[in-house]
Design a protein that fits this description.
With 139 residues, the protein is an alpha+beta fold. It has helices at residues 61-98, 104-121; strands at 4-9, 15-21, 34-37, 48-50, 53-55.
């Protein structure tokens, strides 16, 4: 028996419940409602179903604020991690050049890593918007 999630939808198109059902066993949705297989939509209570489409309820102000705070924290964390990595790589390459130990590839890579680090430093990560990060050099 293959059991799936079914949305119980009232006459206004609102999902009032989600049930596990095999689609075959005798079960009847409550009066005035229907059951539609949820599939991978993620639909749940509070969603709507109209014209064959599941629609999520609008986010609350608190949910939007939490999403923005999480995105801002992710952006700042990502910038810190990228800057740390770029600084470490640049430092090692600079040491190799300063000590006349650098290979030709390391000497060529140094200005690329410095440029990448400068580009990173100019990114304003203090935002909840998506950030377009520069591409690190390939060696």
């Amino acid at each position: 028996m293959n059991v799936s999630d079914y949305a119980v939808i009232n006459s206004d198109g609102e999902i009032i419940n989600v049930v596990l059902w095999d689609g075959e066993t005798d079960w009847t949705p409550p009066d005035g409602s229907t059951a539609i297989k949820v599939n991978d939509s993620g639909a749940g209570i509070g969603w709507t179903y109209k014209s064959g489409v599941f629609t999520a309820p609008p986010l609350t102000d608190d949910q939007i604020a939490a999403q923005n705070a999480n995105k801002l924290a992710d952006n700042l964390s990502q910038k810190t991690a990228l800057m740390d990595f770029a600084s470490e790589r640049t430092s090692v390459l600079q040491d190799a050049v300063d000590l006349d130990m650098a290979t030709d590839a390391e000497t060529a890579a140094l200005p690329l890593w410095k440029k990448y680090r400068v580009l990173l430093s100019r990114i304003d990560a203090n935002t909840s918007d998506d950030v377009v990060w520069p591409t690190p050099p390939t060696e």
